[in-house]
Amino acid sequence: MIYIDNRQNKIEVTEKLIKNVERIIGYALKEEGVNIDSEVSVIFIDNEQIKEINKEQRNIDSITDVLSFPMLEYEDGSVYKEVYIDYKFCEADLDEGKLVLGDIVLSLERAKQQNQEFGHSFLREVCYLTVHSVLHLLGYDHMLEEDKDRMRKREEEILNEFNITRN
Fold first, then answer.
1. 132 is in an annotated binding site
2. 120 is annotated as contributing to ligand binding
3. What is the value of pTM for the model shown?
4. How far apart are the C-alpha atoms of 15 and 64, rounded to whole Å?
């Protein structure tokens, strides 16, 4: 189950945008081996809101594009398909039978600025940020160069399946 909640009013949220976000999350989860009913929440906000959350949650007083709040724990360098693919989740891990993977908080205002800055479409930027964040929910990180390379490769592989390129 993918929940999308628009809590901003600066950028229009179209049905096309919502459908693409839902499709790309569903595909990424399937490709990463999530074979159990699961939940991901996506909250669209603006720059002011994400700056507040970034300061509150990470003690960083600046605007960012997307924040991920995974519910599962991973050892450094491990990802869902290496840890949880055949894991038997108990009832305490589930919410009404669904595995809660986490929340994605995405500033559409920042995504709009970045799509213009990078010279690609708004849809591409939102889909990229969504895939990036979903991979964080599944244990991927980019603190070490080898982890960053692994994550970037998966992001591009997933986006390419939808013909979402930088152009």
1. yes
2. no
3. 0.92
4. 24
